[in-house]
Specification:
alpha/beta, 7-stranded mixed beta sheet, 28 helices
Length: about 675
C-alpha cells in the first residue's frame, strides 16, 4: 500500500485527505474541544537513559496527558508542562489535583481501572475547587459524558476502533485473551506465529487508515510528520514486530492498557504505582509543577527569570518547518541554564529531519526496547552557545521593501517574458556602455531595466530564499573570531536582510556580495550603506566561474564559513565551475557550509517519499509537467537544478547530512506554473 504514493492521481487524493485531516485536527486543538492524548505516547525509559532527570533539573516539556511530566516529578525535578490544547492541560491538572487530594487506592481505581463514577463523586467536593478556571470550564462540560478514561480523547477513540472493533472483525480476539485473560507472553508469541496472514492483513489495514485515510489525525499526527515515513514500506508491520519484542503482559503498559481497557497493578505508568505515589505527591505539594496553555515559545517568553537544564520536546518538532524550529531554539537558548541545556526529542524520521537541529550535532539515543515502538529515532544534544539561534527578519528598518503593485508585476513580467526577443539589442547597449564579458553583459542587460522593481517582484517568486536564511548555521568558528560569508549572485543584498543588523555585526567579520550585474550591485551598496554595514559587507563585481577572478577578488581558499547561492546557480552557465569555486572557498571538515536555494527540476526523493528517480520523478505525467516547466524557464536562461548537477563536488561536500526542503509555489500571473523550490545545505568534508 505504501507504493500507492507513486501514482499521481492517488497521491494527489491522499494529500487532499491529509489536508482535511490536518484542518480537522488543528480545529480540535485550537478550539480546545477535547484532548487528543489520554496517554503520553513517549516511553519515559528513554528519557532516563538520555538525561537522567533528577532534583537538580528544571525541565520544560509538552504536557500531553501528563504521564512523562509525572515521571519527572517523581524524580524531584521542577517541570513546566506546556500545551497548546487547553484540554490537555485540563487533563494533566485533573490528575495532579487528584494525586494531592485522593488516596492512592481511589486514584488508581479512577485512572487505572476506569471507575468513572468514583471520579464523578469526587469531582465536585475534592477536585473542582482546586482547578483553574479554564480547567473547571472544560471538566464541568465533559465530566458528565465521560464513560471510560482509557478510551477517552481522540487517540483513545482510535484505540477503541482498533482494539475493540477491528480485532473482532479480523479475527484477532486471541490478542486480548492471551495478553489480558491468560496473562501469558509465551501464548501470545505462539499465537502470533500461527496467525501470520491475519496480522499481515491487519497491519496493511492500519497502514492504509493512518497513511492514506486520514486516521492519523486521531492520534495527533499531522501530515508533515507522517510524510517523514512515507518512503518506508509497511511501517505498521515494523511497529507491530517491535511491539511483539516487548513484554505486553508485565511491562508495556502503552498497549496493554488499550487491549485490556484498563491497567493492571504491574503493567501501568510509574505514576500509577504505589511505591512512587508519595514522591509524586510531595513534588506536587512543593509546587514543582507549572502548567502553561500555549506554545512552547509562548511559555519561554512569559518568564524571563526561569532557566532550564532540560528541554524534553517529545516529537512535536516533526511537523514544524525550519522557521518554527529556529524560533523555538532561539527562545530555548535565551532561557537555558548557564551550564547549558540538554535538548531531547523523538522523530518519525530515521535521521535528523531539519537543518536547524543538525547544527546542534545531536547524538542518537539507542532506543532498542522502546515500548511505544512508533518512533524511528531519538536524539539528544547539548546547547552550549557554540551555535547561535537568532530570529530571522523580513527586512532592515532603514530599507523597508516596497510592496509590488499589480502594475509593477505586469510590467516586470513583460520585461522578463520579452527579454529573449530583445536581448540582442539590450546586450549591445550594455557592451558599449560597460565593456563586460558575454555572460555579464547578458545578466546586466536582463536586470538593468528591472533593478528598481527587482526585489518587490521576486518577493512573489523566490520562495525558498527565506527558508535558506532559516537553515543557515550561525556559529562560533573553531579557530575563534567571527564568520566569513560569500553570497554568490547576491544581487541587491536582499538575502542579507533575513538576518538582523545586530546579528550580522555580532557574528560576521566579513560578508561579500558577489554579482555580475552592476545595476544590482549599485542597489546593494545603497542598501548596505543605509544599514550602516559598509565596514562588514562588501559588494564585488566578480565572475564566480572564473578561477582567476575568484582568487584575486574573494577570500583565500579554505577560509569561508558560508557560501550561499540564492536563485543564482540556476542562472550561472558553468554550474560545475561555480560549485567547485564554492567548495574551494569553504573551510574543511564540516566548518564550512554551502547553502543553495533555487528552482529545482523535481521534488527530490523526500518530496516523492523515496520513490522514483533522483529528482523524485515518479510517473510520465510528472515528467511531462517538469519538462514543460524546464522549457518555460529555459527561455529566460534559468536552468532548473537537478541532483546530478551537484555530483562534481560530492567528493568535497556532504549533501546527505542536512535534510533538504522542497515545495511548490505558483509563478506570479501564471497560476498553472508551479515549479519546485528547494533549499539544500552541504557541509564540507
Amino acid at each position: 500500500l505504501a507504493g500507492s504514493v507513486t501514482m499521481g492521481p492517488i497521491k494527489v487524493l491522499t494529500r487532499a485527505v491529509h489536508k482535511v485531516a490536518d484542518m480537522t485536527m488543528f480545529l480540535v486543538v485550537g478550539n480546545d474541544y477535547t484532548y487528543i492524548y489520554n496517554v503520553s505516547w513517549e516511553d519515559p525509559k528513554l528519557d532516563h537513559q538520555a538525561f537522567k532527570p533528577g532534583p537538580n533539573d528544571t525541565i520544560i516539556t509538552i504536557a500531553s496527558a501528563g504521564c512523562n511530566v509525572f515521571d519527572y516529578l517523581i524524580e524531584g525535578s521542577r517541570v513546566t508542562a506546556v500545551d497548546l490544547n487547553a484540554a490537555q492541560i485540563a487533563l494533566t491538572e485533573l490528575k495532579a489535583i487528584a494525586v494531592q487530594k485522593l488516596s492512592f487506592e481511589h486514584f488508581f481505581d479512577i485512572f487505572a481501572k476506569n471507575k468513572v463514577n468514583l471520579l464523578k463523586a469526587k469531582y465536585e467536593s475534592d477536585i473542582r475547587p482546586l482547578l483553574t478556571k479554564r480547567s473547571q470550564q472544560f471538566w464541568d462540560k465533559h465530566i458528565k459524558t465521560l464513560k471510560n478514561v482509557m478510551y477517552s480523547g481522540t487517540s483513545g477513540m482510535l484505540a477503541y476502533i482498533v482494539c475493540r472493533v477491528l480485532f473482532k472483525l479480523i479475527g484477532l480476539g486471541w490478542i486480548r485473551s492471551t495478553v489480558v485473560e491468560r496473562q501469558s507472553v509465551d501464548e501470545f508469541n505462539a499465537a502470533v506465529k500461527r496467525n501470520g496472514w491475519r496480522l499481515n492483513f491487519f497491519c496493511h489495514v492500519i497502514d492504509y487508515l493512518i497513511s492514506s485515510a486520514g486516521f492519523a489525525m486521531l492520534a495527533g499526527v499531522p501530515s508533515r510528520q507522517l510524510e517523514l515515513g512515507l518512503h518506508r514500506n509497511n511501517n505498521f508491520q515494523t511497529v507491530f514486530e517491535r511491539i511483539c519484542s516487548t513484554d505486553l503482559v508485565h511491562d508495556n503498559y502503552f498497549y496493554y492498557g488499550y487491549i485490556a481497557g484498563e491497567y493492571s497493578a504491574l503493567c501501568c505508568p510509574r505514576y500509577l504505582k504505589r511505591e512512587n505515589y508519595d514522591a509524586l505527591r510531595r513534588s506536587l505539594n512543593e509546587k514543582k509543577l507549572t502548567l502553561f496553555e500555549g506554545t512552547l515559545v509562548d511559555a519561554l517568553k512569559a518568564d524571563e527569570k526561569q532557566k532550564y537544564t532540560v528541554a524534553s520536546l517529545l516529537d512535536h518538532m516533526d511537523w514544524m518547518p525550519p522557521s518554527m524550529i529556529n524560533e523555538e531554539m532561539y527562545w530555548l537558548q535565551k532561557r537555558m541554564d548557564p551550564k547549558g541545556l540538554t535538548v531531547f526529542w523523538r522523530s518519525y524520521s530515521e535521521n535528523v529531519h531539519s537543518a536547524p537541529l543538525t547544527w546542534l550535532k545531536p547524538k542518537q539515543v539507542p532506543d532498542e526496547g522502546d515500548r511505544v515502538a512508533m518512533y524511528w529515532s531519538t536524539w539528544v544534544a547539548k546547547m552550549d552557545g557554540s551555535v547561535r539561534y537568532d530570529l530571522r527578519t523580513t527586512s532592515w528598518s532603514k530599507t523597508p521593501p516596497k510592496p509590488a503593485t499589480l502594475l509593477d508585476l505586469i510590467s516586470t513580467g513583460i520585461k522578463i517574458v520579452t527579454f529573449p526577443i530583445l536581448q540582442s539589442f539590450a546586450k549591445k547597449s550594455v557592451v558599449a556602455k560597460h565593456q563586460l564579458p558575454e555572460h555579464a553583459s547578458k545578466m546586466e542587460a536582463f536586470y538593468e531595466s528591472q533593478k528598481d522593481q527587482y526585489d518587490s517582484f521576486r518577493e512573489q517568486m523566490l520562495f525558498a530564499r527565506p527558508v535558506l536564511a532559516e537553515c543557515l548555521p550561525i556559529r562560533r568558528p573553531a579557530g575563534g573570531g567571527k564568520m566569513v560569508w560569500v553570497d554568490v549572485g547576491g544581487g541587491t543584498a536582499r538575502n542579507l536582510e533575513f538576518l538582523s543588523v545586530d546579528t550580522i555585526r555580532e557574528n560576521f567579520e566579513k560578508i561579500i556580495v558577489v554579482d555580475v550585474s552592476l545595476s544590482l550591485l549599485e542597489v546593494a551598496r545603497k542598501r548596505v550603506a543605509a544599514a550602516g554595514l559598509t565596514g562588514i559587507v562588501e559588494c564585488i563585481y566578480c565572475d564566480f566561474c572564473d578561477p582567476q577572478q575568484v582568487a584575486q577578488k574573494l577570500p583565500k581558499s579554505g577560509t569561508c564559513d558560508l557560501v550561499t547561492m540564492s536563485y543564482s546557480l540556476s542562472m550561472i552557465p558553468d554550474k560545475a565551475g561555480a560549485l567547485q569555486s564554492a567548495a574551494k572557498l569553504l573551510k574543511p571538515k564540516g566548518e564550512g557550509v554551502l547553502g543553495v536555494a533555487d528552482f529545482f527540476y523535481g521534488g527530490g526523493r523526500r518530496a516523492s517519499f523515496g520513490k522514483g528517480d533522483r529528482d523524485g520523478i515518479t510517473n510520465i505525467l510528472t515528467r511531462c509537467y517538469c519538462e514543460f516547466t524546464r522549457l518555460w524557464f529555459k527561455q529566460d536562461h534559468v536552468i532548473l537544478l537537478t541532483e546530478s548537477m551537484f555530483d562534481c563536488v560530492r567528493d568535497r561536500l556532504d549533501f546527505d547530512q542536512v535534510p533538504q526542503e522542497r515545495f511548490r509555489r505558483r509563478v506570479p500571473l501564471l497560476p498553472l506554473l508551479r515549479p519546485w523550490h528547494g533549499c539544500l545545505m552541504a557541509p564540507s568534508k
